[in-house]
């Protein structure tokens, strides 16, 4: 067996199951889960139709680079969304959801034979970054989010000797679970660090289309363009249809950015066998070409958050995030696991304890004392869950 497998941590939901196996949820209430961040709005019919109409493609092996029509559709979307012009033949690659690509990029860019090979991750974070780093033979360093600055990451906490050993930096904007969006100044600083130390930036932007402010979240490609980095040196952006178009089962997204890195990534992916199903390619091209369903989906989240946030905020310390579909709430007493267990036992609502989404770094676990609420179910169910959360919290006072 690959000994690096032993370094992987159990997934947060696995840990949550183990932490709650002894609990019998209150049978008088029907179960509601705000635990898993899986989109649950319906998939638009035109995407399903495009999938069904393109099954003839199954008779051929698809190319790992994807069909030119899909790459063009992606480049056109990037142009409309970010005013960034990409060369679809060099600067875009389709991927089977951003998860596999976030993992695979580390296997492509990390050189574990260099001393102290390091991958830097946000904290809290999407656990795939950590597993990708560990299986690539690197060690991980975590950068805590700061609740006093709208959960911005504390980049100053990273010593120069760590940046010197860093080969890959994961960032997530809009962030999971905090919803925080990185501003241009932060990008400028990260690009400068990347130029100085030569590391690659993997920018996870899978929540970019679900936002609550008027301005859409700044993307890394747009930040690079604004800062005159037209070749996107050492930058790879990851975008996904899963949340934008409610197709988590389709497994479709793309990476875009530095053509030199994407060339190596394509080579890696060819051996790994990561070509996208041809019917999925056609459906994806159609999905990237339409914004009407995205606007409607965003409005559905906005309406839901407008109804649910005040109910939760009357009981817990929480604010409407910049973007994403999570509330990241502080619980009384700082014991997020105890809070989640009690809520499940008494009110049959599942939430994710924040400490399971983060690691201890600089003496603190920045997720502890918080819970993540995924508002993915329909509004009525989320409102019901919020009311139960309020009742439970008041009962603790
Ligand atoms: C932060 C983050 N990145 C990436 C993903 C992966 O999404 P997908 O593989 O569906 O594109 C998720 C899914 O929940 C996520 O929360």
How does the helix and strand content classify structurally? alpha/beta
Strand order of the largest sheet: 2-9-8-7-6-3-4-5
Mean pLDDT: 97
- The oligomeric state is single chain
Can you describe what's shown?
The protein has helices spanning 12-20, 45-52, 68-82, 98-109, 128-135, 160-165, 184-197, 220-226, 241-244, 259-272, 278-288, 292-313, 336-347, 379-396, and strands at 32-33, 92-95, 118-123, 139-146, 152-153, 166-172, 200-204, 235-240, 253-257, 326-330, 349-350, 352-353, 370-374. It is of the alpha/beta class. The chain has an 8-stranded mixed β-sheet with strand order 2-9-8-7-6-3-4-5, sandwiched between helices. A 3-stranded antiparallel β-sheet has the order 10-13-12. A hairpin with a 5-residue loop joins β4 and β5. α2 (45-52) packs antiparallel against α11 and α12 (292-313) packs parallel to α14 (379-396). The relative contact order is 0.18. The mean pLDDT is 97. Pyridoxal-5'-phosphate is lined by residues 37, 97-99, 126, 172, 176, 204, 206, 240, 242, 248, 253.
Features:
single chain, 397 residues, alpha/beta, eight-stranded mixed sheet, three-stranded antiparallel sheet, 13 strands, 15% strand, globular, binds pyridoxal-5'-phosphate
